[in-house]
Design a protein that fits this description.
Blueprint (H helix, E strand, L loop, with lengths): L1 E7 L1 H5 L3 H11 L2 E8 L3 H7 L9 H8 L4 E8 L2 H9 L12 H5 L8 E3 L3 H11 L22
Antiparallel strand pairs: 1-3, 1-4, 2-3
Bound molecules: adenosine-5'-diphosphate (ADP) and magnesium ion (MG).
Adenosine-5'-diphosphate binds next to helix 4.
Length: 152
């Protein structure tokens, strides 16, 4: 089982797409094991996007991600990191394939609605930025035996 950090970015909240996006992750069979609405501070933005802080477009990204409430969540599932990234689609909504979240709902390279961790190290680092260990509500769902075989 893998865990991935999901952020519903401010555009997702403002456009009232939270429910539809969360429904896609639930429909896929991913378990939401932590979730909260919050504001990203400039300090948290710089930690979250450490790999981009030096880029010339970082100030606009920080303005965007701190510009309104977000929803942070941890999803868990088999190959959850790749599965989520595949569901999001390419970074730019203009390039993301139809059928992906960004491809279906975004026409922007910045306002692309949802963040998903891009690898196991990033996932562990990012989850720790947003959640304390005691905020994560892991546990077997009763539905699990009908989502995949016992040996998967
Ligand atoms: P991803 O979220 O797909 O992993 P990146 O790590 O490349 O994408 O970028 C992080 C976020 O920064 C993107 O999701 C997007 O919101 C924003 N972003 C990416 N490229 C640009 C850009 N050229 N100008 C402004 N914002 C950008
Ligand atoms: Mg990235």
């Amino acid at each position: 089982m893998e865990r991935s950090l999901i952020l519903l970015k401010p555009d997702c909240i403002q456009r009232r797409l939270m429910g539809r996006v969360i429904a896609r992750f639930e429909d896929k069979g991913l378990n939401i094991i932590a979730m909260k609405m919050m504001r990203v501070t400039p300090e948290l933005a710089k930690k979250h996007y450490a790999e981009h802080v030096q880029k010339e477009w970082y100030p606009t990204l920080e303005g965007f991600i701190t510009g309104g409430p977000i929803v942070a969540a941890v999803v868990e599932g088999l190959e959850a990191i790749r599965v989520v990234r595949d569901m999001l689609g390419a970074t730019s909504g203009l390039k993301a394939a139809a059928g992906t979240i960004r491809g279906d709902f975004s026409s922007s390279r910045q306002m692309n609605l949802v963040h998903g961790s891009d690898g196991p190290d990033a996932a562990a680092r990012e989850i720790a930025l947003y959640f304390r260990e005691d905020e994560i509500c892991a546990g077997e769902l009763t539905l699990r035996p009908w989502l995949r075989a016992a040996d998967e």
